[in-house]
Each structure stands twice: as C-alpha cells, then as structure tokens.
Design goal:
alpha+beta; 2 domains; about 20% helix; globular; about 500 residues; seven-stranded antiparallel sheet; 22 strands
Length: about 500
C-alpha cells in the first residue's frame, strides 16, 4: 500500500471513532519521512511525503505528489468568462466554530520543518480561508447539517488563525476527511473486523499551497488516480494485484476556466452502483488548489485489500459531479493556504528548460525539502555522505511521448577522494539488488562517468540518471504515474540525454 493509503487508513481509523493522536511537526522525523518517501516512490509505492509525529509514534504521510509523478505542466485551454460555467451564488458559510466542530483538519505537509522545534502544539492552527472554504463546501453539500458525521479534531483542537500566523502559514498541505450518512450519525459496524455495515459515503478534501496542474489530455481523469483516488477509489481491483491500478478508468478530464481565472477540473468513474467523483479548483497565479474526492461507499479494509464495501453503497449517489463543481466554482471560495514561496534552483543543477517544453518547477509543498536518502531503491548504507541532508528539487512535465512524469534532482557530496567508489557502489547496487533493473553507461566524456538505471517492473517505472564530478554525484530520479504506459524509445533517449545536460550545467557553474 502507498504512504497515501497508509495515511488515509489512519484517517479512516479516526472516522471509526478511535482516539486521534496529538499531531505535531518534528524536523528530524520529517527528514526521515523524506527518506521513506523516496524509498517508497522508487519502489513504486507513493510520492511526496512529510512525517508527522504522534505522542508515541512517528507516522509518515504522503500527499505532495501524484503516484510518483503525474503532474502535468501544460497550461489548460482558456475560455472567456462568457463560456465559463454558470456560477451559483455562494451558499451560506457556516461559522468557524460550526466548521471546526464538524470536521478534523490534519496538516499533512509543512513548508519549514524546523518551525516549532518538534514541540507538540496546544492547537492545530488552520488558516481562516481554509476553514471558510470548508464551511462553503459543507453548506453547499449538506445545507441542513443532517448528513456529514461530526468529526472534530480530538486531543489537540483545531483553531482558525488569519494569514500571517506563523503556524498556519507553515502548512503546505491540509487534508480533511468527512463521512456522509443518511442521518448524520456514524455508520453501524459489524463482523469480526468491525467494518461499516450501514450506508455511508466519504468526502475527502485537500488544500495545497500551490498549483497542481493536471489538465493535459495526456493525463486522463485530471490526474485523480495519482492523488486522493489512488487507493480509495479502486472500484474493481485486479484480484492478482489488489493494490494495483483500478480496472475501472477515470473518465476524460473536464476542465474549464472560471471568470476569476481559476481552473475547474472534474472527472468521474463508476462500476455498477459504485461512484467516485474527483473535482479540483486551481486558483490563478499559483495561489493554491483545493481538491475533493467523493465516494458513495465506505471503505472495506481487510485481508482482501482496500476497496468498496458493497454493504454500504448509497444508491443513487446523494452527491453528484454537478453538486461538487457547483460548489467549487462558486465565488465564496478563496485560496485556503498561504501560497508557497518561489524556489530558486542552484545554477549547478538542472533548470526547467533542460527538461523540455511544458516543464516547470513544482511549487506545491516543499520542492527543496532535504532528504538523507540517496538515490536508489537498493541503496541502504549512506554513511559516506558529507552532511546529514542533500537538497531535493522537484520538477514535473511531459516526456517526448506525452507521459506526465515527476523528476527529483539531488546533489550528493561524499567524503574526499571517494567519489569514484561511490558511483561504483551505486552501480553495483543497481545491478545486483533490484530484480529486473537494467543499467546502461552514459556516453564517455560526460563528467567523470555515469549511468542510467531503469526499474521497469515497478508501477512507477523508475528511471535514475547518475553523473559524477569528483566527489559530487548529481542524480535525477524520474517517476511515472502508477499504471502509466512504458517509456517509448524517444522517452528513453530523453532520459539518457539528461546526463549531458547535467554535465553542462555543473561544468559551466562549478
């Protein structure tokens, strides 16, 4: 299961009425979470992470990126305000107190990992715009407050804070899970596993501090399968690969521009009575994104994998794509989180233009987060690194064949005089420890040597490019969305060509 799935499992545990732990950010745990993020993504499990710490345990969460990649970078087609969807008047916004009493706000990623010094806070400080947006969403979908099951933060209460509050501004990703029942009461449970047995649905909401562009034709379903829907919208799993891609595909991505410049995108899929709906709104100017996923069933979480519980389906679905798009296109919404700051990549590393047309630096979450993990799914001993962390810059865009992928760029510095041995060790690990991995040398004359690694058997079909310059190794880690097509020959040539561009950047700037 992906880290997304593991984290959502914790969220659904909360919906079962179990005690919610006190969450707080811990700098060292987050760095470790970055390690696990890359390790899991490289082995085809998930993408983007941060760790948060409960009083007694560190729990990794993963929400920054889609399925190891999948962020498209081509601007969506624009339409004039005259052709934008009709925007209903904003539904009445519930008071902050009512919203905080009805849903739990869980920060999933932060911008500055050192803020708070790992000390448990007395409250979860949620930016007022995010609280207000949830009020609009709840009022639009449940105007009588008779269906959303109240699930306020337990242990550590949530508190609305204005923009400018250091703790609230530090949130990069915020997730809310809401349970919907016909009478607004928790579902009945039965059986040895204590699974829900009465009708219920789930509305998951995610706020991001920047753009998540998923509007290319090459990204069916608006990229929904790589984010909120990756695990929980698996309507018809393959019995031989229960955690693999759903055999029910998301429909075409319907995307349109609103009068304020926001882009609204939606997609659906269904299997019998089961329905999944994904709708997102991206505010103009990189100001932020809000995403929603509606499932008209509860989750069956047991020995046979994660999937819909057929005993709890709400049919017909009480929430439709029209309902969600109507609420999210309304004028009552604003960016919920403080926008991510601009990131400047050092001139010695690859720049956006080096990847090709349609690429950009990923500004959601923390693109330049540090990580102690180096490189490869097979690499375990990193004791030869100089310093405890390495910079990690994230890019996203299309390959020559149109696959939307994610690329992480890292600079690895090792002890003086050990660069050649480090590269040799990395290659040996790739050749002997990863099953179906293939390794090919880069053409001669590129730095002090390098190679390209591919792990085709993984869902993310990972590619790694390594180039050495003395005691520095530059790595580029490229991941596809899970279930994406394999790289074409042109895509493979593009990956190999990154090696020469790495050398050109490093040689020109030192």
């Amino acid at each position: 299961m992906t880290e997304d799935g593991e984290w959502m499992r914790e969220v659904f545990d909360t919906t079962r009425g179990e005690e919610e732990p006190i969450w707080y950010a811990d700098a060292q745990a987050m760095i470790g979470g970055g390690d696990r993020r890359r390790r899991l993504r490289t082995v085809g499990a998930g993408s983007g992470s941060l760790a948060v710490v409960a009083v007694a345990a560190t729990i990794a969460v993963s929400l920054a990126a889609p399925g190891g990649g999948g962020r498209s970078t081509t601007a969506p087609p624009t339409t004039s305000p005259a052709t934008s969807p009709t925007k209903p008047s904003a539904p009445p916004t519930l008071s902050d107190g009512t919203v905080l009493d009805r849903v739990a706000f869980l920060p999933a990623e932060v911008k500055d990992m050192s803020l708070g010094n790992g000390v448990a806070p007395t409250s979860i400080d949620v930016p007022e715009p995010a609280v207000s947006d949830m009020g609009v969403l709840l009022a639009g979908l449940d105007p009588t407050s008779s269906h959303i099951v109240p699930m306020p933060n337990q242990g550590t209460p949530a508190k609305a804070v204005p923009f400018g509050d250091a703790s609230g501004d530090n949130i990069a990703t915020l997730q809310i899970n809401s349970s919907w029942t016909p009478n607004g009461k928790p579902t009945a449970r039965g059986g040895s596993a204590g699974l829900p047995v009465s009708p219920s649905g789930n509305l998951l909401t995610r706020f991001l501090d920047g753009d998540e562009a998923k509007f290319q034709p090459a990204m069916p379903g608006c990229g929904a399968a790589g984010v909120l829907g990756e695990t929980w919208s698996n309507l018809n799993a393959d019995p031989s690969n229960l955690d693999g891609p759903d055999r029910v595909a998301w429909g075409a991505c319907d995307h349109r521009q609103l009068g304020d410049g926001s882009v609204l995108a939606s997609t659906t899929k269904s299997f019998g009575k089961l329905t999944a709906i994904f709708v997102m709104r991206q505010f103009p100017g990189g100001a932020g994104t809000v995403e929603t996923l509606w499932l008209n069933y509860s989750i069956k979480d047991g020995a046979n994998g994660v999937g819909p519980n057929p005993d709890t389906v709400l049919s017909p679905s009480p929430i439709t794509v029209r309902d969600l798009t109507g609420v999210l296109s309304g004028g009552g919404l604003a960016p919920g989180l403080k926008a991510a700051a601009a990131v400047t990549v050092p001139p010695t590393l690859l720049q956006v233009a080096d990847f090709g047309a349609g690429w950009r630096l990923d500004l959601t979450g923390t693109p330049n987060r540090p990580s102690t993990l180096v490189t490869d799914a097979c690499a375990s001993d990193q004791s030869d690194l100089v310093g405890s962390t390495v910079p990690d810059y994230t890019f996203a865009g299309p390959t020559p064949s149109g696959l939307n992928v994610r690329a992480d760029v890292l600079r690895l510095t090792v002890k003086s005089g050990t660069g050649a041995q480090k590269l040799a060790d990395l290659r040996k690990q790739a050749e002997t420890g990863c099953g179906t991995t293939t390794v090919a040398s880069l053409p001669s004359g590129i730095g002090d040597g390098g190679f390209v690694e591919n792990i085709p058997g993984l869902p993310s079909k990972t590619w790694n490019v390594f180039v050495r310059f003395g005691d520095v190794v530059i790595q580029v880690d490229v991941n596809s969305p899970e279930g994406a097509s394999s790289f074409t020959q042109a895509d493979k040539q593009w990956v190999t060509g990154l090696g020469a561009k790495i050398a050109s950047r490093f040689a020109a700037k030192g």
